[in-house]
Amino acid sequence: MSESSDVRLAVIGAGPGGYAAAFLAADFGLPVTLIGADENPGGVCLYRGCIPSKALLHIAKVIEESEAAKNWGVSFDKPRIDLDRVRAWKNDVVQRLVGGLGELAKRRQVEYVRGLARFEGARSLSVSFDNGNTERVDFTHAIIATGSSPAVIPGFDPDSPRVWDSTSALDVPEVPGRLLVIGGGYIGLELGSVYAALGSKVTVVEMLDSILPGVDGDLVRPLERKLTKSFAAIHVNTKVKEAFERDDGFEVAFDGAYAGTETFDRVLVAVGRRPLTKGLGLDAVRVAMSDRGFINVSRHRETTEPGIFAIGDVAGEPMLAHKATHEGRAAVETISGRHGMFEPRAIPAVIFTDPEIAWAGLTETEAKKTDRAVEVGRFPWAASGRAITLGRTEGVTKVIVDPGSKRVLGVGICGPGAGEMIAEAVLAIEMGATAQDLELTIHPHPTLSETIMEAAASIYGTATDIYRPRRG
Amino acid sequence: MVTDIKIPELGENIESAEVLSVLVQAGQKIEKDQPLIELETDKATAEVPSEASGTVKEVLVKAGQSVKVGETILRLESADDGGTSRRSESPRAAESARATEAPRNAEKLEAVEEERAAAKQTEDDNGSSSPAKAPAKPARAKRSPARAATPKPRPEPVPEPLRLVDTPSVDDDEDVAMPPELGEPAPAAPSVRRLARELGIDIQQVPAGRGGRITEDEVKSYARHLIAGAQEHAAPDLSLVRTGVPELPDFAPWGETEREHASKIRRVTADVMSLSWNVIPHVTQFDRADITEVESWRKRMHERTEGAKVTITAITVKVLAAALKVFPKFNSSYDARTEEVVYKKYVNIGVAVDTEHGLLVPVIHDVDTKNILTIATELTDLAGRARERKVQTDELQGSNINLSNLGGLGTTYFSPIVTWPHVAVIGLGRATQEPVHIDGTFTPRLILPLSISYDHRVIDGAEAARFLRWMAEAFEEPMQLALEG
To answer: Per CATH, which fold does A349-459 belong to?
Structure first.
């Protein structure tokens, strides 16, 4: 066991994959150097992603709910938005969290180095600092957790102040009058929702035939109906043909299902994220990558260069913080001689729009694509007491099970709170629960969580609040 | 470099032993192969030699202690330091560490259980999970399957430290980011899947338990099942036969008593006999063999052969081996769990030897390939060493049927107990001159009393009668051996 002292771990990238891996390694007694680009650990998730966007989406939700309250006999004045204070609040949220992480790193005696790392060889890195200095970090094991960066598209110069990516949009420099969101994925819809609530006229253009491509249609529809009202327009099956930056804004010509030309004050490019390996010096090591730029990894998250691991966005889809964290665990467990392996049955995905969409495990879309027979228990929120009290009856919860064993293979939810509720589904899938297990588990009343129990019960045709006799 | 010297494989079915004596002490310089400790296994004593030369750093066992195969007995500061690779500098070492860290056997199962218990303990103590858990297991040299005392070739290969399955972690060639598994994942919780990984078990192979789910218990019992299967005849847990036995009454009202701890041989005999008597429905039958001709032949041979003592026992072993070929059912075991009869394609015969320490049954292996002279020589050697307690453990194992000759003590007929998992046992009494009615007159003939006890689950009375008669006739017409046997 004295061998542990020979292990020196370097973690490159201090996002939720990197810092969690570094912390766990420290907890296991390994000496760790954590290298990040920002003042504190946190990465995109805390500085420029999950956390600030959720802070802003919370504001958006309050604005929308205060508007909806007039239907229930409570009227507010039109909200006055102090953008500086919105920004300050969001920044405060971020600072609290990253400051906490910095403190945790110190207490764990994780050496945090702010700089950019580059492989010099399979056992050493050089870290360059803002001041031009460099430092050599030797390691026996390294974890690459450099994450991803927003993809860019030709025609929209990322240096133009009129062209935003998710990072600049989250800085809330202003509330543009007309905002074009290119890309109908979750980033575009979340940020589009924020700006729509703040007062922008938001247009979304999506190349494929639906917003949130790949997500089950029945989960998307309630959101789509809502966004069709709050956004100026949603153009699917439409591409940007040309764009000219003029004095009064971007003149954008569309092509496809919608073929007009419009002018926008700002353009938010949200066409996805690309794995970030540039400048890492991967040519100095034997780390192989896929055509799409992801680092190839084993189930232990080890790359083709023994001793070097990769986790998070840089190691493949889905690019989600919680996936990165758990990959980091598998890598550190492997490095420390435990039995780490990344083998989740379900990685939950949440879209934090309003209504939220969340799913875990098998989707109906995937089942169809792979010709897998499934049975689906669906519970419309119109039958949920709690949803009615919230005035949010548009939601739906569905449980996807194996037709024979009735084992829960997947769960999909659309509605407020879906992101919180999906955790139960992930546990059910990981534990190999059957629909009956969900049905027989007492859920508190009146809550939205009952919809999971009811959706499971409807597999057996015995949901209390809907009448849907079992076929046959 | 410090090497842990462990209890080596002691022979099939032997999992533990008692330390009779410790032959070295801390600080002592020792040579490779020098005996370190003396062990008493079920029925024999054995010495554990050192795997390497060096200085004894620490002795971890003491006389009287019970030790398990694989347990560390002492730590040796060995002279050479180049042999085994240490982890770390080389990532390949890390890799091989992972590859070898799946010893995946019974010890591992126990180790995991102990580790978990310990971890739980630590957590309980600290109120949180302990950071001090030892990381990074080194790539250790494989435990040498050193044999106890003077190794001699075995008829069967020593089971290697086993791997239950091809380790699923050898996926270094796998170069794609793996999407979460869909389809039919094993119905097991993440913690259970991890346990399976730790034990080197493919979770997909574990049969589901109640509710169609795989729990920790299913994984463990599957692991045990695999270990048992891999160890051929896994040593049965004989201690089970002692459960449910009532306490002895108090003898004090009737007089003075004295308690003496039963010897290891007595204890094992007690367990084996209890098990055998409880499991096997016994029937005993008798017959008589006219060995007049055989005896006069034997005496002639006895004078001619030097060294080897051709005895009635040796001849009976040969006759019995031939009979087993003719009646293969008597060379079988009954698997009550699968309801199968297990026929053995080899003929190993145990011969009971009365020693001052108790009953020992050394085994003559592959009797069917040996002539009477060879059998006689082996028997003399084995019996002699058994009496001196010098017989090796594996020389006491693997018998298919036992032979007990109480003739030397004057007994005639008796009903021996079939040793589980055998299906029969042969008993010989003292041959006596008896008047036999031949061609109108009584002629003195030498008559050998034969007894057979058998497992009535496998063998019926008529079959046993035929079997014993065949043996009797083989004594009377020795050419029958050449003809049928």
So the answer is: Enolase-like; domain 1 (3.30.390)
Q: How many residues does chain A have?
A: 472
- Which of A3, A122, A342 is nearest residue B136 as measured by Cβ atoms? A3
Which residue in B22, B44, B19 sits closest to B35, CA to CA? B22
Chain B residue with minimum CA distance to A24: B131
Statement: the pTM of the whole predicted model exceeds 0.80: no
| Residue keyed to tokens 């006229």 | A201
A300 touches chain B (CB under 8 A): yes
Do B91 and A3 make contact, defined as CB atoms within 8 angstroms? no
> Residue B67 pairs with which residues in a beta bridge?
B17
pLDDT tens digits for range A145-200: 999 999 999 889 889 999 999 999 999 999 999 999 999 999 999 999 999 999 99
Q: Catalytic: A445?
A: yes
Residue range B260-285, pLDDT digits in tens: 888 888 888 888 899 899 899 999 99
Which chain B residues are Cβ-neighbours of A336 within 8 angstroms?
A: 135-136
Average pLDDT, chain A: 94
Segments of chain B assigned to CATH 3.30.559.10:
264-483
Least confident of A244-253, B220-229, B371-380: B220-229
pLDDT at B200: 83
CATH number of A163-271: 3.50.50.60
Q: Judged by CB atoms within 8 Å, which residues 180-219 of B form the interface with A? A: 180-190, 193-194, 197-198, 211-214
Does domain B2-84 bear CATH number 3.30.230.10?
Answer: no
Contacts of B367 (CB under 8 A, 6+ apart): B317, B318, B320, B321, B347, B348, B349, B375
- Rounded Cα gap, residues B13 and B421, in angstroms: 13
